[in-house]
Design the sequence.
C-alpha cells in the first residue's frame, strides 16, 4: 500500500522494543510529516552512532568511544567496581547515577541449560582487573535469578583471594526479577543496602 | 552520562509518538546491541525515505514518489474520491484497505479560532479535480468534530453544483472522535454506512 521505502522503515521501527506495527506506523507518519524537526535529526543521530559504535575493551559497555565514557570519566571512583550481566544492566544502574564507580559487563550469566560456561563470559578479564589492584570493593549486581546468583557465587570464589570487599545487591530485588526492568527507587534501595557476600 | 551521540539518538527517538524517554533508552540499547539486525537496517530505511520523501502534488499524500503510490495505483477506482483532513487520516483509511478509490488531503480543517480559512486548505485543488470530471462520488471523511463538520459543509457547498454523489462517513463515529485514533472496525462500519450529504 505504502511505498517499499516507507514499508521498510515501518518494519525496521516496529522491531524496536516497545513499538508494535501500529505505533511504528504512527512514528513513520510523524517522521515524514516533520522532516526537519524529526526525520533529519533522527537520521543524523543514528548515523553518528552507527559510525562511532564501539564495545569498550575495558568494561564491555557499548558506547561511541573505546574506552567508554564511564571508564574515562575522571569523576568516578576507580576503587569501586560494579559487575553486571549485560550492558542493559549497566545502563539501568547508570541511568539514575546510582553507582559512582566503574563497571564490568560479563556479557551474560552462567547457564547449564544454555551451555554458558565461565570462558564464555568476561570473567577472566574481571579477575585481571581485580588482580591488578587499586580496587577496594567489587559489587556483584547479578540478576536475582538462579543463574544470576550462580554466576555471583562463581565470581565470588574466583575473587575471594584478593584483598577486596565483595558485596552484592541487597535482597529486596523481587525474586526472578530482571535488573533492567526495575524502577530506580528499587534499584537505589537495593544498592544502598548492599551487603558483604557471606 | 552516555556519550553525546547516544544521548542525541535517545532524544531523537523519545520525540516520536508512543516512545517516552524510558522506552527510547531501551530502543537505543537494542539498536547498539544489534547493530547488524537493527541499527543498520533502520539507518538504511530512514536514509532511503529521507532521500525520496515527497508530497504528492495531486492528492497531498506524503510518499517517496510524486505522484504518490495511491494516485498511480492502477487497481484503484478513479471515480471515487475520499477527502480527508490530514495525511494521518488517509493512512488510517488506507491501512485496512477500506477505501478502494483515490484520496484528497486538505491539510487541516477550517477553524475560526486558529484562523484557518478555505485558502489555507487544499480546497481549490479539490474543486479542480471534481470539475475536471470522471468522478462519480466524493466521500467527505472529515473528523466528527465541530471544525471537521464545518469543513465538510463548506466543501459540500463548493461541490454541489457538480454532477457527483456527495457522501459523508456515517454518524457512528464517536462525537469528538479523531479519525486517526479509531479502530479499523469502527472505520469500516462508518464507511459502509456512508450516506448522502443532506
Ligand atoms: Zn568502559
Ligand atoms: Zn497522491
Sequence:
Amino acid at each position: 500500500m505504502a511505498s517499499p521505502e516507507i514499508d521498510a522503515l515501518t518494519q525496521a521501527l516496529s522491531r524496536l522494543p516497545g513499538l508494535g506495527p501500529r505505533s511504528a506506523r504512527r512514528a513513520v507518519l510523524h517522521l515524514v510529516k516533520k522532516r526537519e524537526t524529526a526525520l533529519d535529526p533522527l537520521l543524523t543521530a543514528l548515523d553518528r552512532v552507527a559510525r562511532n559504535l564501539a564495545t569498550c575493551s575495558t568494561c564491555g559497555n557499548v558506547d561511541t568511544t573505546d574506552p567508554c565514557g564511564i571508564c574515562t570519566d575522571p569523576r568516578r571512583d576507580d576503587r569501586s567496581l560494579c559487575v553486571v550481566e549485560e550492558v542493559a544492566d549497566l545502563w539501568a544502574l547508570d541511568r539514575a547515577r546510582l553507582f559512582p564507580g566503574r563497571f564490568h559487563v560479563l556479557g551474560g550469566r552462567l547457564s547449564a541449560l544454555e551451555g554458558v560456561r565461565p570462558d564464555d563470559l568476561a570473567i577472566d578479564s574481571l579477575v585481571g582487573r581485580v588482580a591488578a589492584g587499586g580496587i577496594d570493593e567489587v559489587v556483584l549486581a547479578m540478576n536475582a535469578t538462579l543463574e544470576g546468583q550462580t554466576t555471583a557465587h562463581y565470581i565470588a570464589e574466583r575473587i575471594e583471594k584478593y584483598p577486596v570487599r565483595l558485596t552484592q545487591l541487597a535482597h529486596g530485588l523481587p525474586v526472578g526479577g530482571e535488573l533492567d526492568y526495575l524502577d530506580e527507587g528499587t534499584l537505589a534501595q537495593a544498592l544502598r543496602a548492599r551487603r558483604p557476600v557471606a
